[in-house]
Amino acid sequence: VLVKVVTNPYPYTDKAADFVQEASILQVNLFKQDVDNISIPISHIDDVLDMIDVLVEDSEGLNEEIGCTLSEDMIVNTFPFSAIVPSSLEARNKLLVDENGREESIVEYLIAVFTDLLHSQRDPLALCLMFQHYD
Q1: Burial letters for 10-43: b for 16+ Cβ neighbours within 10 Å, e otherwise?
Q2: Where do transmembrane segments lie in this chain (predicted)?
Q3: Residue of 128, 122, 13, 126 lying closest to 72 (CA atoms)
Q4: What is the DSSP string of 119-131?
Q5: pLDDT digits (tens, 9 = 90+) for 64-79
């Protein structure tokens, strides 16, 4: 799973971004707020990679480059979970189809990790949407 994500992270990062975007849209519709009044996390991989480059570089001139300071909340809201999550969910689904006794312990481990991840989320809606999609 890790090798698959490291060699080609873009499809999984895009999936994570899609669910974060969908969660933001659902929240807007749920609370009937104007789209202009809510901050929708960045969902384009190029923008996120640019933001990471900015964070790695010296923070001098950061306000001029992106227009505002990046807070920890803004970074966490952009991608609240790793691209490993959709890849792991795909692997879990393949293991469930195989139904060998050996893979049962792996599936149990993944369930425990996903449960911990769910409990550590500030806003779990995007992760819940991803779980629902892969079930």
Answers
A1: eebbebbbbbbbbbbeeebeeeeeeeeeeeebbb
A2: none
A3: 122
A4: HT-SSTHHHHHHH
A5: 555 556 666 766 666 7
CB 87 within 8 A of CB 14: no
Cβ–Cβ under 8 Å, residues 86 and 16: yes
* Residue 28: partners with Cβ closer than 8 Å, 6 or more residues away: 35, 38, 40
Report the alpha-carbon distance of residue 52 to residue 48 in Å, rounded: 6
Its pTM surpasses 0.85: no
Q: Which two tokens stand for residue 3?
A: 């090798």
CA gap 133, 127 in Å, rounded: 10
Distance (Å, whole) CA 14 – CA 100: 31
Torsional class of 34: left (φ above 0), alpha (ψ -120 to 50), beta (otherwise): beta
